[in-house]
Amino acid sequence: MSLVMILLTIFLPPVAVAVKQGIGVQFLINIVLTLIGWLPGVIHAFWVNSREGSAVA
């Protein structure tokens, strides 16, 4: 992960998921987790962004 993506994941988790996955199920899950609390959203965003081969074609 690049430094920009790491910073985006920490400060704006839904945006980082949208950049990596697009607007879809993972994005909606991350929105809900971020609304519940900042930390669950960040953890989910790091998980989504660290998976291999998860980029949208």
TrEMBL record:
Its main location: membrane. The chain crosses the membrane at residues 28-48. Pfam families: Pmp3 (PF01679). One of its GO terms (cellular component) is membrane. It is found in: Membrane. PROSITE patterns: UPF0057. Keywords: Membrane, Transmembrane, Transmembrane helix. PANTHER family: HYDROPHOBIC PROTEIN RCI2 LOW TEMPERATURE AND SALT RESPONSIVE PROTEIN LTI6 -RELATED (PTHR21659), UPF0057 MEMBRANE PROTEIN ZK632.10-RELATED (PTHR21659:SF42). Belongs to the UPF0057 (PMP3) family. This is Stress induced hydrophobic peptide.
